[in-house]
Design goal:
22% of the residues lie in helices and 25% in strands. It is α+β, with helices and mostly antiparallel strands. It is globular. The relative contact order is 0.16.
Length: 300
């Protein structure tokens, strides 16, 4: 699903959102607007012909290199007319000028509400807690996790043990790759209910936030957000945003209760909302929620 407030281009009469764009930067290479627009044209053609159904990082990079080659390499601008048209369209979308603010500072407050009152079935008592917050500020070219996607090794480790080392390494590699701008790392909650906060900065090139934390104890359950944009529909940074936190199953452990013994899944399953037998937990499609994330802009 395209990010809210993402830029749009009209390609062959069809609006293509920035979610589908190819990389805009490459070390040692100047990527012109013509190359980027050529990427969009290729994506559009592949999608209309049914060749490209789902855009992912591998497809994005393949199309990018194809566009770069067709445009004549780094610094070449073989599509000046389209470039000028694209610039005019982007100006029209924002009243003639792009918004002046390029970054925004936020405080993320995690308000954990998980308790025996909210989730009475097999509630683990005073051991109920959440692991340290971990995530990243990133662009549309990376999906760290999402419903229906298989968990990475880092996500598996976080969901099963609360450890963040492997996930941090994955995010560091993504930062080198240019899809992650910064890593978000915050405290956990020792005893739920409670509250904890962490601060970070987003930019127009990297307006998305992914943050997760383990529901502990649990087999491989976690809560969080993925690819949450902090740009509004009018392409300005949001003042505040509140997100309810449902429970997700990482699909890597077959345990059914908060305190189930470790039981590695014989075959990993895609990430999905937790639904369990009423005798095991209160979850049905991830509900009741276990808390909220509140994003609050804090810069002047």
């Amino acid at each position: 699903m395209p990010a809210r407030g993402a830029a749009e281009l009209t390609v062959d009469g069809t609006i293509v959102r920035a979610f589908d764009r190819c990389p805009s930067t490459l070390p040692g290479c100047t990527i012109t607007r013509g190359v980027q627009v050529l990427c969009l044209k290729i994506i559009f053609q592949l999608k209309t012909q049914g060749v490209l159904v789902t855009m992912n990082r591998m497809a994005s990079r393949w199309i990018f290199w194809l566009a770069l080659a067709l445009a004549g390499g780094c610094g070449s601008d073989s599509n000046t007319a389209v470039e000028d048209e694209d610039t005019e369209q982007n100006e029209d979308m924002t009243g003639g000028e792009q918004p002046s603010e390029s970054t925004a500072r936020y405080r993320l407050t995690f308000d954990a509400t998980w308790s025996e009152t909210t989730h009475p079935t097999n509630f683990p008592g005073p051991s109920a807690h959440f692991s340290g917050l971990i995530g990243a500020v990133h662009n549309e070219q990376i999906i760290i996790w999402e419903n229906g996607q298989f968990a990475t090794d880092g996500m598996e480790e976080m969901a099963e043990t609360g450890a963040t080392g492997s996930l941090t390494q994955e995010l560091e590699l993504a930062r080198v790759d240019g899809t992650v701008e910064s890593i978000i790392a915050g405290d956990g909650i020792d005893i739920s209910p409670d509250q904890v906060s962490v601060e970070f900065t987003v930019s127009r090139d990297y307006p998305l936030v992914t943050v997760v934390t383990m529901i502990a104890p649990s087999p491989d359950w976690f809560i969080g957000v993925h690819g949450q944009t902090l740009l509004t529909a009018d392409n300005t940074f949001a003042d505040s945003l509140v997100v309810d936190l449902a429970a997700y199953d990482a699909g890597t452990d077959d345990g059914t209760q908060f305190t189930s013994a470790n039981l590695d899944a014989e075959s990993a399953q895609p990430i999905q909302l937790v639904t369990s037998d009423p005798l095991d937990s209160d979850f049905e499609f991830g509900l009741p929620i276990l808390g909220q994330f509140t994003f609050e802009r804090i810069d002047p």
